[in-house]
Amino acid sequence: MQITVRKIFHRNQFRIGFFFKQDQELNRIALVIGARYSRTLKGWHLPYAPDTLQVLCEAYAGHELEFLKEETDTVELQYTRPLETLKEQVGRHRTQPVSPRTADLEISAGNRAELLRLEQQLQLKGYSASTQRTYKSEFAIFLKQLKRLPAADMTVERIRNYLQYCHTELKLTEATIHSRMNALKFYYEQVLGRDKFFWEIPRPKKPLQLPRVISEEKVLAGLFRMANVKHRMILLTAYSAGLRVSEVVNLKITDIDADRMQIFIERAKGKKDRMATLALFTLQALREYLAAYKPRYWLFEGQHPGEPIGVRAAQSVFKQAYKDLGLPPSLSFHSLRHSYATHLLENGTDIRYIQSLLGHNDIKTTLRYTHVSKQAMSRIESPLDRILRNQAQNKLGNGDEK
Description:
By secondary structure, the protein is of the alpha+beta class.
């Protein structure tokens, strides 16, 4: 496919733009090399720097790159040595401001190829989109640190030293280090096919973080303060069935089973289908919502026809609903799911049923809610209260004897 490359002036700075007919594979490569897409220009663009042309030629090897004159966008000129000629043009304009995304070009050409190999292997193994984004991001950061050193040549000892650097110098959190280790483990073991050597590198112990729960009263207060019916239904559906935000926004109308009073969750976390409970009140409210909004395919449509509402939009709805209720600012949309599980537990639902409803593989994940259930904790009396109560009873008894 032909790719047109030309100098552009975009948002008060020179950039190198490249344009092609919409193609999923070419778009994927553009994202990997750190390009930005402009809806106005209907094309991708990168910083106006000499390395950019090298990146484009390497990333789109096998495709025809056509370079246009910089004086006009309409006159075409096929250079006999396009890379060297345009490098000279770029070099004369190095005083122009360069986008911060130039940092994405700090990865050497050889290591950029390894990043593409990692992405391909992730796709072939069918990893989720979020896992792919995390692994690619963490691996890219690692490659930038290596500079010209080939990633494939790294030894176990050098990787240990790098992870120690992440601990001591970068002060990364335990969760971030775990993510980076997972990305490196995937590359060296799944892409390069090395023996499993990561057992030699200790993992940092993760802190035990308890779920943040909203009381039943404030859950309802947040739900029914929403004037927008669709926004209210998003939160109501999420809480009443204990759904993740990604599960709510991807619900289809056909996923609502009124006969069996269930909600079908397709390809949830871990690519597992499951059934969630459909509350009677939620069903009645959904019928009113469907009659008023008339969505065609997705239960909660976004601004653009034929697309579901976005995750960020749903998270914003949650923040708007609960911002003035005196709740901690750290609460998120996921707190509705935590609250659903905790309230079920407090109402006497067996922990195994809760595990199934939430789609947890490990019962230990579900057992976290026992630590925040007020029902279990309410039966435990503090030693201080017991001592003071006994003292008060003893004094009262002594007074009666006198």
